[in-house]
Design goal:
The protein has 761 residues and is of the alpha+beta class. The chain is built from 36 helices and 10 strands. Among the domains are: 138 residues; 82 residues, no CATH class; 73 residues, Serine Threonine Protein Phosphatase 5, Tetratricopeptide repeat (Alpha Horseshoe); 58 residues; 76 residues, no CATH class; 104 residues, Alpha-Beta Plaits.
Amino acid sequence: MDVDIWSWVGGTQRQLHEAGNAGLAMALGDVPAQALEGRYGQLDVVAPAVAQQAEELEQPWLELFARYWHVIGRVGDRANGAVALADARELAEFAQRSDVSDCPAASAAAEALAITLANTDGPGYADERLAILGRALGTVGPDSLAFSGLTTQYVAALLDNGKPAEAVTYAEAAVERLRGVGREASWELAAVSARALLAVGRGEDALAALHAATGFKPDDPVAKSRREGLLHAGILAELGRIEPAVESLPDLDVVGEHPREWVEWSQVVRKLAAGASIANSWQLGRVIRQWMSYFETMGGHRAQVELALTAGHLALARQGTWQARELAKLAEAVLPELASSEGLPERIAELRAAADAAPVVPLPGPPDELVAYFDAADGRTADPERWVGWLWRRSGTDLETTRRHTTTLGFLGYAPVGAEIYWKMIVEDADPGQADEEDIAYLTGLLIEAEQDDRVVELAARLTSPESHLALARLYRARERWEETSVEAEQAVLGGAGLEGRRLWSAAVQHQGDNATAADILKPVLAEGAEGEEEDIWRVIVLATATEDWALVREGAAKLGMPLQTTEGPIEEEWHLIRAILPAPDGSQREVLAVRTGPATARLAIPQPRGMEYNAGDIVVVDPRPLEPIPDTEEERENFVIPFAGISILRPGGYTSWFFDGAAPGEAEWTEFNELLAERGWPMWVYSDDGYKVTHPGTGEPMQGVFGWIAIPPSVEPAELDAVLDDATEQWVHPLAWLDLSREVGVEAERHERIVKEYGL
């Protein structure tokens, strides 16, 4: 995006602040960071909200800004393809509107669309990408920051179009144009230039270009390190320098959360694994299969095929011929989704031929003893890929073999394959009504995982109650169709389904907002000798707490052997500090100190900024399962505060928060101030850190600052807080400001406005 847009963003933020829209102003400044830093939960909430407000305020440039960063957050590191294509096209069309086209960021919409097309099918959309980018480059010069990004994508499109020599020439010309206006290429442009050099066989030049670009400024600074290491490893591998390539390759745990790197990383690993320089294990195959599923969901069609082919050859190197054949099928199934499949059928056929030519791996024992061998295998060292191949010879004919075979197939990411085998044996070749409950349950799970919903319905139609209702309840739960889940699970329970039926029924009713009924459905687990686990009891406690059925909470606590201080009425005890993890308006989570007051309740102890849905004094329902393991040693446990997930507000405390800001007082003054507020029971919390500075009004030098919030209960008037603060701070060398509070009570607002201005608050 052009440098002018950042100046515009700053001006827009000031305007929004002045207009009293501080929340939107803050969100506007944080959206790019959310996209680049991977804070996608926040981005997916905040960016659309900013765009909607911008539309309502009739600020199309602001709307373009928010929509652009949301699309980039999806198609950049997350590598969304076809699922984001409509939004990317709409963004590009929006950028052409007469009231938007003059925006310095308008050309960036073309870059976002080109990236989305590349994610979907790079080679297939190469011509369209070149046309889109060419038009955009015609509207900007090398003095624009948009130039490098557009050029980077243009060179990448040339490479996908099979024109590496032209890509090299274009990249070199672009770099010269940048130098002509005194600017340097972005790291991304230098990196794609190195890729172009590698593609024309100039590996040493590619390596030199990459080294020379190390200090270049990246458009995506967060990703630069791993992307640079990955490209470096790829170039070195191509040059045959295996050992340094392995050293440069980012670890799996580094790239594992970044889909944009998955295809390239897998291809480099294949080259390095060929020389046994890097582990080629079944775990690697399982991870790549998971990556394929991700791209299937996100519409990354070309990535699916490339990963399937790479994984297939890696599997063959591990003697996984069955896997290579299945991966070839998966790759072939994606071809109709591609804009162009040129060359791919031949590569798929090559993989199949290699699988057919591979030697058969000998069985570990007699065929009729495979189940015994499987059960005796060491679960930590056994190779599940090998076992799939071995068990396949009797799978579909022998029930015990089929159970283990399909289970292992599902574990490795091939649930649809296992579902086909199991379906044929249980449904097509036999009467499912006579099948074991365990087989029906597992077959249903495989079908759901394979998204073969019609088959689940067909299976249920051939079963009797309660199994028929259970099968449908499992399906509807997986698809979050709660009303239908409730109906089927209830019928299953009435038919004698037992605990699983009650769990399904209770969860469905809870999702429909009826906690009391959900607790009542699961209540039988509290009976003496009842079927159930500790988790079920805790679930009853949480549900009963949400409806303040304290008698049932006590019954559950007694079942767990948990002592309580009272025998009736609300449970409001003082247990211990916890960290309540609660949602924030921007989609992130906040960690709030609280006092646990019962088995599933806590009272928030920290005042929250205005605009939050909760505050100090609120009683919240928490999930009693710790979000982090309790430390093993006494020393570690001493300072450990257990985190629990907040579920809902049980009872608001009615506290109101007021903001204070200013220069930090001396230690004695601050201690006295804290003690005064604590005596009155008014929670206070400092939100600033040591890096917060204010300006000395006399010297202009920076001083340590402090800001935070004070919460008062509903029984206290704001005027009382104002008076207490005034008395407590009147002797301080540097005053605090509580501007919003002073305006509320109508006392000395001008003085607080002056403090804010003089101290640069």
